[in-house]
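lol ok so funny story. i was supposed to be doing the assay writeup but got distracted and ended up predicting the structure for this chain instead. priorities right. anyway since i did it might as well share w the group, maybe its usefull for someone
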Amino acid sequence: MNSKIILVNIFRWFLLLFIQILLLRNLSFYSLATPFVYILFLLLLPFKTPNLLLYLIAFVTGLTLDAFYDTLGVHTTACVTLAFVRISFIALTVNKDNFDEPEPTLGNMGFKWFSIYAILCTFAHHLVLFFLETFRLTEFSYTLLRCLLSAIFSLFLIILIEFIFYNRKAR
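and the output, tada:
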């Protein structure tokens, strides 16, 4: 990786965590839908990021959110789960040998691939996050509804952000 990609990702990490902690932390619709756009950072990490480094970055990102949200490892577990789903999905869908794009963005991969990728990773993250937060099966349907509505809200914001910074790949 070159230094430009590293600096862009460091800036993206600080910006998305700043937005999540200061702006979106208290944004909730009837305690059902809460957006988590900080996961966009993990989604946009370069393809060639080593798996161990990806898990470490996901761990530190989740730990940072846990510190500000005052949750005990919930975001950390959800971020590490997202990293696992990301690694699995990219391994199944992308041939890294013949691929010259550095990041899995909307402009590089296309709308269909990016939307499936974002949906899978976001739902995995939100399922783990909300079920660990609730930690009881008596509220299963309510927790599942919160997960679904929050994932839809988060996906809407993630795709909106990607369209704002959309950069079509020159073919």
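The mean pLDDT is 89. The chain has seven helices and no strands.
back to the writeup now i swear
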